[in-house]
Please model this.
Amino acid sequence: MRVYVSVDMEGLAGVAHPLQTYHDAAHPDRTDYDRSRALMAGEANAAIDAALDAGATDVAVNDSHWQMRNLRAEDLRPAARLVVGDHPFSMTQGIGGTQRYDAAIFIGYHAGAGHPSGVIAHTYASSVVMEVRVNGVAHNEAGLNALRLGAHGTPVALVAGDDALAGEVGALLPWAERVVVKRALGGHLAESLSPERARQEIRDGVGRALSRLDTMGLHVLEPPLRLEIDTRLPVMADYACVAPGVERTGPRTIAVECSDAETLYRWLLTLVRLAGVPTV
Model:
């Protein structure tokens, strides 16, 4: 059994504020980010350990947060491989080609942009995206990543984060095990389990999920697929509409028709990056 683990940071136990999730060059003495890197490794290792205990013969860990070089290789279990560095395919780097996985596990994930209480809720780029919809249904990062994984035959077996995320995942990926490591009390406020307790919940959850792989589904939608993105500012939609075939359907909304989920995911990354140009 081959297992793919995608690890974000905002959904980790003990993390509730954006300043905990990135290095602030203006305050080099601030230690919040380094502490969060350790929390990130701790929850990733809990998933790795449980996957190995369940019979996994290969575990790949994708660093899926911010600039995607947060995890220190020396902090992870020796049995795992780490995907780290610049990621053209973002949170699903390493999927596709000859890399086939039997299950995916999402750790440290969060609710989608616009959620009223989700901790640090956003979708791919908080400075750009207000909402992403596929065939009219709002999709958070877990759902969007699950679409690409589904196109490559890999089910999302478990998603860990706050209770706001768990609610969204229940609607989008009802078969997936959901581990709640904190209760969302607001955009920058949470009631969190201790790291030790959160890791045990993840170990138990991964064990349950991998024991019932035969019940897991793929997030596959009937084509054609319509991708819609509400940008924060009209100028962002201006820049995204430079791409051929992209429609402007509202002051801040862009849309494109896609033949399959792989194409949709590539359009998602392309349009979010184009729309982000005015913020640079």
Helices lie at 32-53, 141-151, 163-172, 195-211, 234-240, 261-275. The chain has six helices and twelve strands. The mean pLDDT is 97.
